[in-house]
Amino acid sequence: MSIETNRRSFLSLAAAGGAGIALSGLAGRASAAASSPASAESFGPVRQIRAGLLDVGYVDLGPRDGPPVMLFHGWPYDIHSYEQVAPRLAAQGFRVIVPHLRGYGSTRFLSESTLRSGQQTALAADTIALMDALGIRKAIMAGCDWGARNACVVSALWPERCQALVSVSGFLVLNPATVLTPLQPADEFSWWYQYYFATERGRIGYEKNLKAFARFIWRQASPNWHFDDATFERSVQSLVNPDQVAIVIHNYRWRVGAAEGDPQYDALEARLAKVQSVALPSITLEGDANGAPHPAPAAYASRFTGRYEHRNLSGGIGHNLPQEAPEAFAQAIADVSRW
């Protein structure tokens, strides 16, 4: 789940930056065949393409000449967060790309020697590499949880590659300079798993109880979402990835200063820390039953300096908003595309 979004000091100091490290050589080549038929019929198949450091598994729906939309999932979820969003957008003429992030699904590292970093700029660089490999120059960025953070980071670092932004729970860019600033005790308690993962016991516990852990988080984050076993099993299979544990543990340890980042992203993190806002057309969304820690919309409204709108969703909508309210999420993308 997303983290530090309710951190008072973070909300006042977090920054996102407008450029990046050289990404030469990050573009890749697509395989001719789909790699997985496991998705819902209207959502699959999952294809593979070499992009940057990864062989990325992704869904590609809609006309190839349609306005591109990049949809990013979170943890412990997968591309099926968008199994109802993507077909809706494709039917409206958008080209919709839904990638498995590093450590999920059929996405694999090309080299065993690559550091399994889960830090925010690593995922953002993966996104630019994927766009380059697919020949997509500019796209709408949208996401939830880790995916919302990724959409925000990409929009901040490479605004020239982004048409607009849709983010659940606001401006989620992390500022490493604030990681040692403590929250109030009740707020710290809400991030229990973050501190669990900071221990070796937590790493072993996640590896040993991965599926049970995911189910528990789903229920905690979306207390009113009555998902069935089939829905859960379809997504949780994506966590059975050789790099899942390493990526998740590094992600959460890096956030609290318990792990070093990958040096190749130092320049990106430094530039990210200098930008205070996103000037793109943006819509943020929040469900009325989000059980994950999240900031009040007023806390991040100033981070969006272009045309901006926040939408509160009622009806027991939890943290995995695209899967729980796909029509509203798809509508936000369609609306912001016309701004």
From TrEMBL:
Transmembrane segments: none annotated. PROSITE patterns: TAT. It comes from the Bacteria. Keywords: Hydrolase. Residues 67-198 form the AB hydrolase-1 domain. One of its GO terms (molecular function) is hydrolase activity. InterPro entries: AB_hydrolase_1, AB_hydrolase_fold, AB_hydrolase_sf, Epox_hydrolase-like, TAT_signal. This is Alpha/beta hydrolase. It comes from Roseateles agri.
